């Protein structure tokens, strides 16, 4: 760039925690509607404070926004995550809503994540998801495609996977050929999926 640019990077679980801090720094109080949206964003990013990426600052700011919006956080969280996996949504739409590709030590893979209140509703659609995942893998020349179906209430994720299956089973100690497999306490793609594969391939 012609001029230096401002970059703000802070160790919190949600970008919206930083945005809300900027409101405070400028002496601006968000409207109740905006505060509700901000609280929703923090709940979404931190999986209702259960993700390992969550910090006390995220929790404090979400609670403050909920008070301004006059809405209970539990109720707001249930609404946010119930909307993520409606029966009317196509498998492809769910799979690509939060989809990221990674390139690690010569391996190309994609990891998608959907967070919900009732994972069984989605795991019953396993064959639909696997078919979509195979299509994506073929079309984009990927070694593997993974889908995390993260269950807020169970505090863990069901992992579906296609391609390089032996490596994936080794990485996550998957017995036999279980697909999907439930991984307790695994809620974060960034902290709990990618680092394991990076360590194996790196």
Concise structural overview:
The protein is α+β, with helices and mostly antiparallel strands and 202 residues long. It is built from nine helices and five strands.
Q: Can you walk through the features of this model?
A:
It contains nine helices and five strands; from the N terminus they run αααααββααββαβα. 34% of the residues are buried. It starts with 14 loop residues before the first helix and ends with a helix. A five-stranded mixed β-sheet has the order 1-2-3-4-5. It has 202 residues and is an alpha+beta fold. Helix 2 (32-46) packs antiparallel against helix 3 (56-69) and helix 2 crosses helix 4 (73-82). It is globular and about 55 Å long. 48% of the residues lie in helices and 17% in strands. Strand 3 (144-151) and strand 4 (156-162) form a beta hairpin. The protein has helices spanning 15-25, 32-46, 56-69, 73-82, 91-97, 120-123, 126-140, 165-171, 189-201, and strands at residues 99-104, 107-116, 144-151, 156-162, 181-184.
Features:
5-stranded mixed sheet, alpha+beta, single chain
Shape: globular
Reading the helices and strands in chain order gives: HHHHHEEHHEEHEH
What is the strand tally?
5
Characterize the biggest β-sheet. 5 strands, mixed
Radius of gyration, taken over Cα atoms and rounded to an integer in Å = 19 Å
- Mean of residue pLDDT values: 92
Helical content (DSSP H or I, runs of 4+):
40-55%
Distance between the termini: 33 Å
Which class best fits the helix and strand makeup? alpha+beta
Measured by DSSP, the beta-strand proportion falls in 15-25%
Helix count equals 9
Question: What order do the strands of the largest sheet run in, or round the barrel if closed?
Answer: 1-2-3-4-5
Indicate the low-confidence ranges by residue numbers.
Answer: none
Oligomer: single chain
């Amino acid at each position: 760039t012609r001029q230096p640019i401002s970059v703000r990077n802070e160790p919190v679980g949600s970008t919206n925690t930083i945005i809300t801090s900027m409101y405070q720094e400028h002496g601006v109080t968000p409207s109740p509607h905006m505060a509700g949206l901000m609280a929703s964003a923090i709940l979404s990013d931190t999986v209702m404070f259960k993700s390992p990426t969550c910090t006390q600052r995220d929790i404090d700011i979400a609670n403050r926004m909920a008070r301004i919006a006059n809405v209970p956080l539990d109720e707001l969280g249930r609404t946010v995550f119930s909307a993520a996996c409606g029966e009317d949504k196509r498998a492809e739409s769910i799979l690509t809503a939060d989809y990221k590709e990674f390139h690690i030590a010569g391996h190309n893979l994609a990891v998608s994540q959907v967070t919900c209140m009732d994972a069984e509703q989605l795991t019953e659609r396993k064959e639909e998801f696997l078919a979509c995942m195979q299509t994506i893998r073929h079309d984009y020349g990927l070694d593997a495609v993974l889908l995390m179906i993260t269950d807020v209430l169970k505090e863990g994720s069901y992992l579906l996977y296609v391609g390089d299956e032996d490596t994936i089973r080794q990485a996550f100690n998957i017995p036999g050929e279980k697909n999907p497999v439930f991984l307790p306490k695994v809620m974060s793609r960034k902290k709990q999926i990618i680092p394991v594969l990076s360590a194996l391939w790196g």
